[in-house]
Amino acid sequence: MSYSVGQVAGFAGVTVRTLHHYDDIGLLAPGGRSHAGHRRYSDADLDRLQQILFYRELGFPLDEVAALLDDPAADPRAHLRRQHELLTARIEKLQKMAVAVEQAMEARSMGINLTPEEKFEVFGDFDPDQYEEEVQERWGDTDAYRQSREKTASYTKEDWQRIQDEADELTRRFVALMEAGEPADSEGAMDAAEDHRQGIARNHYDCGYEMHTCLGEMYVSDERFTRNIDAAKPGLAAYMRDAILANAVRHTP
């Protein structure tokens, strides 16, 4: 079988002009000519064109494509192995790009419209988008989650910085209380716990005492929270949980 330049262009989704150019530079010379001198392409020519288009799709310049295809040491299986390796690398790169786009979409849905540099400046090593999928799964149908999304939708970098500064100040208060030997049910610790609850209510969602105690329990039951909180001082997560519980009891009739 042989094919005209127009047929081959249709098969491959390229222009006739492209095939003429490949012929002119010696990259893909048709295997035959018609009686009228028109180009005729064989099945082997189509196989070579497929290889050319693959490497072009991956960004290889034409001179490198020619060197690859005309390498006397390479056989068809070697080309297939190389293509598989290149495709695998391309897929991994695209998957990473897809994840980055998804995270950006999630961040916008959360109202965290910060650049990566701004996020690092405000939150440090903690990525507020990291657990968004889990957050949606666990609390996506709750009023608290909806309130948080509505409140944070308009937050600016300055708002997030203020919230983070407040959290850092509370952490320092709790640590100072621990180091001073104040028990978790002391007035100072319970007052800090109350400020913690009110900060959540002010910046994110209505946080009653029952919900606040649930958060406190999560601080010690989820090792990720424990590890993050205890980074300021070992045992801080449990201390905060106990202070939150004592404060709830204090305010429960």
From TrEMBL:
InterPro entries: DNA-bd_dom_put_sf, MerR-type_HTH_dom, MerR_fam, TipA-like_antibiotic-bd, TipAS_dom
UniProt keyword annotations, A-Z: Activator, Coiled coil, DNA-binding, Transcription, Transcription regulation
Coiled-coil ranges per UniProt: 77-104
Pfam families (UniProt xref): MerR_1, TipAS
Domain HTH merR-type intervals: 1-71
Superkingdom of source: Bacteria
Name of this chain's protein: MerR family transcriptional regulator
